[in-house]
Amino acid sequence: MKNLRKLEKKELKTIKGGNIPVVPIGCNNWDARARCCREWDWEHSNNPTC
To answer: What is the extent of the structural domain holding 48?
Structure first.
C-alpha cells in the first residue's frame, strides 16, 4: 500500500475522462451521439437499431 496518495481534483478529471462509448458485441456501426447501433452482424441481426 505504498502507492496510496491523495489525488488533486485536476488529476481526477483526467482519470475520469468522460463517457467512454461501450460498443455492444456484434455491432458493426456504432452511433456515438445517439448511443445506439446502426447495423448488427448476422448473429445479432434481430437486435434493435437506431
So the answer is: 25-50
